[in-house]
TrEMBL record:
Swiss-Prot/TrEMBL keywords: Hydrolase, Signal
The organism's taxonomic lineage, starting at the top: Bacteria, Bacillati, Actinomycetota, Thermoleophilia, Solirubrobacterales
GO molecular function: hydrolase activity
Keyword Hydrolase applies: yes
Protein name: Rid family hydrolase
Organism: Conexibacter stalactiti
Signal peptide: 1-19
InterPro entries from the UniProt entry: RutC-like_sf, YjgF/YER057c/UK114
Length: 243
């Protein structure tokens, strides 16, 4: 077969495949959540339309933790943050120590409340810095579609503090009941649950990795985020649900 005929045959095959994909959009697939709408997320089945992001979470779950994955349409603009760790805001602690990276705005005087671990406090600090980073391009935690998190062991501990990370995560993500729209109180350490720092229904996909060390002395947490730009044609995110 000549190169021209081969090219034409491939083009015809691609056209048929695309057409079949359009006709079968979402056929037989379990719906996930589209968080880009107004007051509430809405169910939608993958594959997404060109301007959609569909989070692979069963729509009969009121309080899932993370998405199993995220489908992203071809016209969705994406923002990739660099790895961001906690800021050294606790001047009362020596430089290079984990305590230096406790945020006094979250824990006055840099003193941890009962049951709060140093990893939990650093993760809250790091998520706040991710929030600041997103704000520089007009985005927020509501726009995040996936997270990658690196954790080092706290001094004297044999493994990463996954439970502490998860408590910090719930302060910024996955803290709205998807069935009722109610904000879900979240604990800090062993304290009584209270309002989360950022009210946010979005369940991003997520990976957490235990590492031997992180680039800044004293860091126990580093976070990368990928976020979607709002679809201005569709009005972006409307009011409600913490936006």
């Amino acid at each position: 077969m000549s190169r021209l005929r081969l090219a034409l045959a491939l083009a015809a095959l691609l056209s048929l495949t695309f057409a079949a994909g359009v006709v079968a959009h979402g056929a037989g697939l379990a719906p996930g959540w589209d968080f880009s709408g107004g007051s509430r997320p809405r169910p939608s089945a993958p594959p997404p339309d060109d301007d959609e992001v569909i989070h692979n979470v069963a729509t009969d779950q009121a309080n899932p933790f993370i998405s199993n994955g995220v489908s992203v349409g071809s016209e969705v603009g994406l923002y990739f943050s660099s790895g961001i760790g906690p800021a050294g805001l606790n001047a009362a602690a020596p430089a290079g120590t984990p305590e230096r990276f406790v945020d006094p705005a979250q824990f006055p005087g840099g003193t941890l409340t009962p049951g709060v671990t140093i990893t939990e406090a650093q993760a809250m600090n790091a998520f706040a810095r991710i929030t600041d980073n997103l704000a520089t391009v007009g985005l927020s935690p509501r726009d995040v579609i996936t997270l990658r998190i690196f954790l080092d062991n706290a001094p004297g501990q044999p493994a990463m503090d996954f439970a502490g990370l998860n408590r910090a995560y719930r302060q910024f993500f996955a803290n709205v009941d998807l069935q009722t729209g109610a904000t879900l109180p979240q604990p800090r350490g062993s304290g009584e649950p209270g309002p989360p720092l950022v009210v946010n229904p979005v369940r991003p996909s997520r990976t957490a990795l235990e590492v031997a060390s992180l680039p800044s002395a004293g860091w126990l947490v580093e976070v990368e985020a990928v976020a979607r730009f709002k679809n201005e044609r569709g009005g972006g995110h409307g009011g409600g649900w913490g936006r």
